[in-house]
Amino acid sequence: MNTLTPELEERVARTRQEVADLHAELVRYGLVVWTAGNVSGRVPGTDLFVIKPSGVSYDELGPENQILCDLDGRPVSGTPGAERSPSSDTAAHAYVYRHMPEVGGVVHTHSPYATAWAARGEPVPCVLTAMADEFGGEIPVGPFAIIGDDSIGRGIVETLSGHRSRAVLMRNHGPFTIGKDARDAVKAAAMLEDVARTVHLSRQLGEPLPIDPSHVDSLFDRYQNVYGQQPATTPSTPGAHSLEPSQHHS
Ligand SMILES: O=C(CO)[C@@H](O)[C@H](O)COP(=O)(O)O
Question: CA-to-CA distance for 34 and 30, rounded, in angstroms?
Answer without folding.
Answer: 11
